[in-house]
Amino acid sequence: MKPAAVGLGIGAAVGGAVAWASRGPTLVEWPAPVRTAFPFVLGGIAGLAAGVKTGTTLSLLRAAAGRGPGPITTLPPVLVGAGVAGAVGLAGTIAARRLLAGLVEQGRDLDQPYTVPPTDPEVSGSAGSVVKVTELGREGARFVNYVTTPDAIREVMGAEPVASPVRVFVGAGAAATPEQRVGLAMAELRRTGAFDRANLIIQAPAGTGYANSFPVDVLEVLTRGDSAAVAVGYGLLPSFLSLNKVQAGAHTQRLLLDAIREELAGREHQPRILLYGESLGAEVQQTAIPAGPMDLDRYSVAAALWVGTPGGERADVFHALCAGESYTVDRPEQLPDPVPTPRPRVWFLEHDGDPVVRFRPALLARRPAWLPADGQRGRNVPVGMTWKPGITFAQAFVDTMFATHVRPGQFESRGHDYRADLGAVTTAAFDLPCDAATAERLEAYLRRTEVERAQALGEA
After folding, report:
1. How far is CA 346 from CA 69, 292, 324, 349, in A?
2. Residues 47, 125: one domain?
3. At 79, is the pLDDT very low, low, confident or very high (cuts 50, 70, 90)?
């Protein structure tokens, strides 16, 4: 039988087997067209690879035995193929560059409601700020405009606020270097009196500059405004296109932490230092303090909360490093009550079924702990989901694309959506005073505010 025919048969068999095996349940829901097409695409890729490899190998063996010309009989077809591949590659590179440029511009453009400077002097971009509103970027402008108002604090706390909260943000486009951006952030922290507040939360943004307002909202409300928040951007692209900027983001975080440490060394009043990072921001902040607890000591960090940290060897090593003083929860119901003494300084909020947390290259060839052979499953990990070499890796990769399904005001504790958990977990991680009635009012405020913000942006 000819090698090509054997390769075709093997490819069809492998492709069919892979397509059938890849029909199982996954961590999150996919759009129906993706769910339908996935087995055919994955099976087609596997079948093509197996068929080509089989046919080529047989052709080489036949040629070595003097029974055929081998897989390549003439040079011109190879050159044609190389030329086509080169042309396709060049066109793809040009298209990718244009796409990235468009995404960067999108990250710079401000939402229409936030194109004018904020009126609150305690936030960046306002009239007295060293950072212009146009330098905040889309996510930075949202972050500073989402600052909790005194009226909102009174609504939840039933008492007069201590002060108007401080929010400092320096976008990636505000200066050319991380050193300059951190210098601007420090100038803003001094201008706004941030170091005189009782609490200072340092947030590492995600790739676009996105800094989640939720945990800051919680801090601002429960401390009655006696807080300051700071975030410094390092890019404008979505996180999945910013994986190569983790080190740059970590360098920015280290510069900021060092600058704050030096500033506080000469001050009698010492605010409580809190760290927060979510998704890529969590990875960035953890990378910035590779010694874990030792670095937390160095920077006098009172508490750190990291949410939905992307999975991988770096995350596993960091988890192990902090094991002696950390707590990991999937949902608020798992929060310790009472909290152990001494109080854990590091808190990880990671859903059992979050594909961003679970995805890693090791899935290709090794069964993960969250899919044990005995069938035991964490929350939202389907009972029928099993590990299959290569296939589970591909499924989890697609899962990451649909991990966050956000509907304003409808909080879901599922996948990479942590909105339903952040109120209670932030309260516990940062040791904030909050009774049951206050927690209920706070949750209602967070849900209503998210809808109002989405409506202002035309997203609801």
Report:
1. 65, 9, 9, 10
2. no
3. very low
User: Could you tell me the end-to-end alpha-carbon distance of the chain, in angstroms, rounded to an integer?
Assistant: 62
* Consecutive H or E run containing 419: helix 419-429
Angstrom distance (rounded) from CA 65 to CA 48: 26
> Whose CA is closest to 370, among 349, 394, 354, 391?
354
114 and 70 assigned to the same domain: no
Beta bridge mates, 227: 199
- Six token digits for residue 83: 């030329």
Closest CA to 388 of 37, 17, 44: 17
Alpha-carbon gap, residue 281 to 397, rounded angstroms: 20
Distance CA 124, CA 132 (A): 8
Closest by Cα among 414, 423, 426 to 444:
423
Our count of domains for the chain comes to: 2
Whether residue 408 has a cis bond before it, omega within 30° of 0: no
What's the confidence (pLDDT) of residue 415?
95
Maximum mean pLDDT: which of 27-41, 65-79, 274-288: 274-288
122-138: average pLDDT:
95
Position 143 confidence tier, pLDDT thresholds 50, 70, 90: very high
Question: By mean pLDDT, which of 159-163, 228-232, 250-254, 318-322 is the weakest?
Answer: 159-163
How many residues are present in the chain? 460
CA–CA dist 282, 234 (Å, integer): 14
- Are 174 and 301 part of one and the same domain? yes
- The residue with tokens 């001494």 is 342
User: Are 70 and 117 found together in one domain?
Assistant: no
Q: Peptide bond preceding 31: is omega within 30 degrees of 0, i.e. cis?
A: no
Q: What is the domain range of residue 310? A: 109-354+403-456
346 close to 328: Cβ distance less than 8 angstroms = no
Same domain, 144 and 46: no
Query: Which pLDDT does position 460 carry in this prediction?
Result: 64
Tokens 């960090």 belong to which residue?
Answer: 301
- CA torsion sign, 313 to 319 to 322 to 324? negative
One domain, residues 338 and 423: yes
Q: Is the pLDDT of residue 379 over 70?
A: yes
- Nearest Cα neighbor of 203 from 185, 223, 184, 229 is 229
Domain finish residue from 56, 78, 100 = 78
**Assigned domain for 86 exists:** no
Q: Choose the weakest-confidence range: 94-98, 179-183, 268-272.
A: 94-98
Q: Is 202's pLDDT higher than 80? A: yes
Q: Which pLDDT does position 218 carry in this prediction?
A: 98
